[in-house]
Specification:
alpha/beta; Rossmann fold; eight-stranded mixed sheet; 17 helices
Length: 438
């Protein structure tokens, strides 16, 4: 059955979701406050990078099934897919969700569905969305069906995972959940599980928290191994040969719109209980500063102005998404130390210190920091690149490059999670760094 669907928010989730529904025969109204997004979409163009999304969007727009506006229109179903960022004091900023819910109220009619897709703290659907929707005069759960259905997609694989990942459908009552499930069955080919809206909200946050906690364990291991004088990556490789152990990989921090944000929503609700979750967030948030401190130690014998060339600035490899990227904080920290900085990232079009040419970026540099393991960096010719540098040093935060290859090219190699011959830590500083103050 062809439905008219209004999707509010045309970002990394809202746009693929809109295109997916449109490509399966529904009439989709995409809504965004950004006029540039709306103009581009109505031309069949997109302003974000995601494999094959441009093709799907162009087909959906050409068919007439997908149109964009700056305000909502009447529809059979409304999907709210707006951002839920965190404030400076680590609280959920629900401004966009609240405004999106308020914006659709004048267009609601009997029999409509309202689905919150935005990742939100527990109770958002019941305590924030429902009171706003009640202003329509419709009886919630009987005349207006409401729920929460969080996405579970990985940037770079969004279209495939929208279809093939199983999905949780949370309703404010059973009838709401079943009607939402029926709508998503349009394109979801995997299992869908119905539950309450609040349970669905907690599931989404805890799925990302699980990963964040495990990464924090790996990051703490990296710090421990640096100070003990062994290689964390070897420890992880050997531990993971145990049939019931799967330690994650350390790195310069955790970013993205989920892992670096969602755990704070849980901490905000019950700070006295979410001790492990908060400790893990603090540990992962400490990694940019840790990388900065290691950089200072690498530079201990270099006099005068120092230049750092950073390879990669997105929050994960092979995408253009910089949301909550820990490398942004690293750049700020290095600026505070008055280092000259250049950045190379093949996926980013604009950012301070950004250079498109690798050799130009490395010119007179004293250190390369591999911050994001983009595939594009695998083909670097270090013999040629080293000729441009003043001091040939590499700090690999991802265990991405081969140390022997770099050594043959005359580079000193430093690895996150390994002490290294040139890396000497004062024991008191080390203990301070490992400890995380609650």
């Amino acid at each position: 059955m062809k439905e008219k669907i209004c999707v509010v928010g045309l970002g990394y989730i809202g746009l693929p979701t809109s295109a997916m529904f449109a490509s399966h025969g529904h009439e989709v109204i995409g809504v965004d406050v950004n006029e540039e997004v709306v103009k581009a979409l109505n031309k069949g163009e997109i302003i974000i990078e995601e494999p094959y999304l441009d093709i799907l969007v162009q087909a959906a727009v050409t068919s007439g099934n997908l149109k964009a506006y700056t305000e909502p229109k009447e529809a059979d179903a409304f999907i709210l897919a707006v951002p839920t960022p965190i404030t400076k004091d680590k609280k959920a900023d629900m401004t966009y969700v609240k405004k999106a819910a308020e914006a659709i109220v004048p267009y609601l009619k009997k029999g409509n569905l309202v689905i919150l897709e935005s990742t939100s703290p527990t109770g958002t659907t019941q305590d924030l969305i429902v009171p706003i929707l009640e202003k329509s005069g419709l009886k919630i759960g009987e005349e207006l069906y409401v729920g929460h259905s969080p996405e579970r997609v990985l940037p770079g694989q969004i279209l495939m995972e929208l279809v093939h990942n199983n999905r949780i459908i949370g309703g404010i009552n059973k009838e709401s959940a079943e009607k939402i499930k029926e709508l998503y069955s349009t394109f979801v080919k995997s299992e869908m599980y119905t539950t309450t809206a609040t349970t669905a909200e907690m599931c989404k946050m805890m799925e990302n928290t699980f990963r964040d906690v495990n990464i924090a364990l790996a990051n703490e291991l990296a710090k421990l191994c640096e100070n003990i004088g062994i290689n964390a990556w070897e420890v992880i490789e050997l531990c993971n040969k145990h049939p019931r152990v799967n330690i994650h990989q350390p790195g310069p921090g955790v970013g993205g719109h989920c892992l670096a944000v969602d755990p704070w929503f849980i901490v905000e609700k019950l700070p006295e209980l979410a001790n492990i979750i908060k400790l893990s967030r603090d540990t992962n948030d400490s990694m940019p500063e840790h990388v900065c401190k290691r950089t200072e130690k690498i530079f201990k014998d270099i006099e005068g102005t120092k230049k750092v060339t950073i390879l990669g600035i997105t929050y994960k490899p092979n995408i253009d998404d910089m949301r909550e990227s820990p490398i942004l904080e690293l750049v700020d920290l290095l600026e505070e130390k008055n280092y000259d900085i250049s950045i190379v990232d093949p996926y980013v079009k604009e950012y301070k210190h950004l250079e498109k040419d690798m050799k130009k970026a490395a010119k007179d540099s004293d250190l390369l920091i591999l911050a994001v393991n983009h595939n594009d960096f695998k083909g670097i010719n270090f013999d040629e690149l080293g000729k441009e540098m003043r001091n040939k040093k590499m700090f690999d935060t991802r265990n991405y490059f081969d140390q022997e290859t770099l050594s043959k090219s005359g580079f000193e190699y430093y690895l996150l999670g390994e002490k290294g011959n040139q890396y000497i830590v004062d024991q008191k500083d080390a203990l301070k760094e490992i400890a995380v103050t609650k």
